[in-house]
Amino acid sequence: LDYQHVQVPFEITLWIMLASLAKIGFHLYNKLPSVVPESCLLIFVGLIMGGIIYGLNDRSPPVMDSDIFFLYLLPPIVLDAGYFMPSRPFFENIGTILLYAVVGTIWNVFGIGFSLYGICQVKAFRLQDVSLLHNLLFGSLIAAVDPVAVLAVFEEIHVNEKLHILVFGESLLNDAVTVVLYKLFRSFCEMPTIKSVDIFAGVGKFFVVGLGGVLVGLSFGFTAAFTTRFTKDIRVIEPLFVFLYSYLSYLTAEMFHLSGIVAIISCAMGMKRYVEANISLKSHTTVKYFMKMWSSVSDTLIFIFLGVSTIGENHEWNWPYICFTVIFCLIWRALGVLVLTFFVNRFHVNTITSKDQFIIAYGGLRGAICFSLVFLLPDFHRKKLFIAATTVVILFTVFIQGMTIRPLVDLLAVKRKRESAPTVGEQIHIRFLDHLLAGIEDISGHWGQYYWKDKLEYFNSKYLQKILLREYDQPKSSIVLLYEKLERKHAMELAQAGQLGHSPAQPPFLCSAFLCSSSDRTVITDQKLEDTLNPAVLDNIQEILARNLYRIRRTGPAYNRHTLPGDSEPAERAKEILILRHKSL
Amino acid sequence: LDYQHVQVPFEITLWIMLASLAKIGFHLYNKLPSVVPESCLLIFVGLIMGGIIYGLNDRSPPVMDSDIFFLYLLPPIVLDAGYFMPSRPFFENIGTILLYAVVGTIWNVFGIGFSLYGICQVKAFRLQDVSLLHNLLFGSLIAAVDPVAVLAVFEEIHVNEKLHILVFGESLLNDAVTVVLYKLFRSFCEMPTIKSVDIFAGVGKFFVVGLGGVLVGLSFGFTAAFTTRFTKDIRVIEPLFVFLYSYLSYLTAEMFHLSGIVAIISCAMGMKRYVEANISLKSHTTVKYFMKMWSSVSDTLIFIFLGVSTIGENHEWNWPYICFTVIFCLIWRALGVLVLTFFVNRFHVNTITSKDQFIIAYGGLRGAICFSLVFLLPDFHRKKLFIAATTVVILFTVFIQGMTIRPLVDLLAVKRKRESAPTVGEQIHIRFLDHLLAGIEDISGHWGQYYWKDKLEYFNSKYLQKILLREYDQPKSSIVLLYEKLERKHAMELAQAGQLGHSPAQPPFLCSAFLCSSSDRTVITDQKLEDTLNPAVLDNIQEILARNLYRIRRTGPAYNRHTLPGDSEPAERAKEILILRHKSL
């Protein structure tokens, strides 16, 4: 027996196997997952495993390694979250999300930190040795809502899309704030004196960390899209690039102390539409399926490890500190949501209802990120107290809040997610309204989200698509292609039936066919059709087509305050018609 | 900048990225891969990379770690090979393959070992310090044909299926022999005296290693199939089990010093048909696609690392030893193939032609397995000579033989693989002939492959499928289901049109419908149809159906020398009809 040799991969495989089997086990009893969230069950399995290890070895089971968590377990989940992020509600609510993520998290950090410092001043609690900075450091790690925990719970309760994206978006984007504040306070703890310069540097650093993450992510995302342009002959490795570039963006961001979560999300959102267009359908199925699978396994492992790590002798118990931590976490989050929503609602027509506010506040679950951060703390005499408090907060939020949020959603009759996909009619109307609103915003000079969306779309179709897509042309949907085919057939039949006027003695044309390409209509006439037209009619048709075609093709970004319709060069128009004619030849 | 922190995953990701980009690069120029095999190009890239590292660092670049190779790079390739192994030609030629793999490899090991020992006796070559045992040890690692190299070359030249499976099957199954001989000689080298008991133990060990591998593999394979029975509610982690169980089988076999390659191949071949039936179509696409992708990346990495590891100061050059190694490898393989094929052809109608023999001998490529084994050798003063000789043999076989085999195949007009899939007619005939031959073998008392295949199929459908498949019934193809639906509709229409005889005043039946289930035909009559039949007609139909149905359903394994047709109990038959009727109710 040579166990040493295969130990590492063997144990990793066994852990993954345990996680997967546990997942299957829960789903064998259909009633169980509908009452208790899976995350709770998994933590429970972890607790049992931890208990067994503790019982057998008589020492604390190994805690989840922070490196393993941040380098291997977290990225798949965040990648999955970013890749499947519903971009429309996300960008529609980006302002609100950022407000919650940035201002809300800072509010929570300082709120919790200062009030816990207040508790520490009470002599009866014997906590006077915990300094303000340590409390703030603790606040910075306990304040952040955890994307893994939020995702695990909110995916099961099916609240409406807006509510979901508000909580989930906040949990993702607060990473930049958490990283900055955590590192700031940690370095402050080790500094002898703190100058005001350091504080300003911290504020500046926040922008660097957040925007740097976005930049790193987008550049890797576009590189990924560009790479998939060249994989036509070797389809089998296409899915790999999606994973490799996303992971590289995460690692690169972490390497430069930027926000890895923000980077990987930007990367995934940036690459998605181009990669989807470039890679084959099977590759795309594999990408989607594997991403879901991987994130599901990571998620499972995280909760199991969370359970395992809870068991042991890492804890120092202090009733007042731990109880007040839980209470302050709840109070400050509720207050923060109330105050911020008050401001948000003043600027929006579509307000956040008080029920939604309650769910946002109540859905602020803490999870494995806090847990890993607290173990990464430098050693000091109260570290075990912080570990105990963090563990309790996590278990409280995941178990109590996670288990009661579903009945509460039912009780309050919170607006649910619509089950059916929007109809074609709805989709067309939404798109039409987008164009309309972009035009209105442009006319009124209000540079709102529709204006920017329109600009971005224009930039995308004019430059990005040409560089990043294998086929420059707008990809046509199958229904459009079918319609074109039918139209063409119809035209040929008409021609053959002689309904277009027949003149047998007629010279052959050089221009043998037309291509009338409006956005969704093409009629290519055949050799036979062309024979039935005389030159005069042909010229007339050509003239009409030439004038209208060009107009129609420019419907997209045509109107602008600074130009008049029909303002474009006639030469350019003629050139375009020539190109169209050449194509049809 | 915090590089230390992310170093390991970052560098792994970069290596994989390099491999993938190199692969894309070759395929951008379509002509290149059609002349030079990809493996050569990749080794070349590796050589350049190695040169750069050597130039920059001024020391030998890191060699491919044997652990990384055996634990992480080899399994995906072998899993892919096993999962996509064409089982029919494999089992049809299993005898020949085993002969080549076992006897052929032993022949090569001893041939090369003894003749090199002969060379070492020539005083002019100054090799007298290399003992016989060391030469045999070297022979045991250099004799084995490498599956990775063979697969890389043979996938591109498209020779006929039988030739392909002979070379490829041999390269996979010789692992058991290589493992045993290599470990045997290595322990002999360290022993002071060798008793004849040790030699017999070695021979016995070969069976343990090979059959043990098969056993470990099959048990993990069946466990995997059994596990996927319960994944109906959690489709997303289905693909994981295929990978986890295969990998566990490999690691477990390695742990017990069995043949990991044999284990993972048995596991993949054992689980395949059950897993395919249990998991969803999307999961299966993901499994197949990811397997191909993973093996492709592993393969690429292996060849690149092979190139990188070649550069450096690990080599001791000795012209005669190295040249004679190459020559003996060629000669002994050619001789072995000739002699073994002579015996094989005496027992087979479908003989191996001399052209095929030449390609089998010429296709004996060596690769990364030898390379990893030679680095695993215990340190002794001539290790560097062995490394040099192994490197030269690998480069010679991969470059010279790999590049010339395609022109040779063209020149000799070796029978190619048929491009088109067999037609339905052909498939039906093949299956029919299988049944026929199984019957003939059974009658004549010759227990050949068809007999055993039939027995296995019977055992499978009677026991294994019931345990391992989610739905016990034979899975029906979509065309059968459609046919059933149409038949049912037709029957209802007939009934509604009153063509089956109408009698309005009729008592309701308990037995409301029939189920006529031959292997591909089901007619379920509706409430309406049943109303149109009178009891006498009904009983008559029931009687006819009852008699014929049972007969039809037993077409499969009905005939047997020891039983007569119609030998089964009438009670059993009645019971079966009762079950059918209950089902239809």
Automatic annotation (TrEMBL), chains A, B:
Pfam families in alphabetical order: Na_H_Exchanger, NEXCaM_BD
Transmembrane segments: 12-29, 35-56, 68-85, 97-120, 132-153, 165-185, 206-227, 247-268, 289-307, 319-347, 359-380, 386-409
Gene Ontology process terms (BP): regulation of intracellular pH; sodium ion import across plasma membrane
Localization: Basolateral cell membrane
Annotated Cation/H+ exchanger transmembrane domain residues: 17-409
PANTHER family found in the cross-reference section: SODIUM/HYDROGEN EXCHANGER, SODIUM_HYDROGEN EXCHANGER
InterPro entries in alphabetical order: Cation/H_exchanger_CPA1, Cation/H_exchanger_TM, NaH_exchanger, NHE-1-like, NHE_CaM-bd
Molecular function as annotated in GO: potassium:proton antiporter activity; sodium:proton antiporter activity
Membrane topology: Multi-pass membrane protein
Main location, first listed in the record: membrane
Protein name per the record: Sodium/hydrogen exchanger
Domain Sodium/hydrogen exchanger regulatory region: 530-585
Family listed: Belongs to the monovalent cation:proton antiporter 1 (CPA1) transporter (TC 2.A.36) family.
Gene Ontology terms: cellular component: basolateral plasma membrane
Keyword tags: Antiport, Cell membrane, Glycoprotein, Ion transport, Membrane, Phosphoprotein, Sodium, Sodium transport, Transmembrane, Transmembrane helix, Transport
Organism: Tychaedon coryphoeus
